[in-house]
Amino acid sequence: MGPNRTVISAEHTRIIDMLTENGVECVTLPYENVSAFGSGPRCSTHPLIRQS
């Protein structure tokens, strides 16, 4: 995304506020239901199969 931009779950409002105060643009996603299972945007975008 870039050095001053990140993807983050929308329910992490305190972290989003802190990042924004420090010049980071936060792209938020509604991930509350997925996060309940211990996952987030980063985990969801990993490839399932990697070619060698």
Automatic annotation (TrEMBL):
Gene3D superfamilies: L-arginine/glycine Amidinotransferase, Chain A. This is Amidinotransferase. The lineage of its organism: Bacteria, Pseudomonadati, Pseudomonadota, Gammaproteobacteria, Vibrionales.
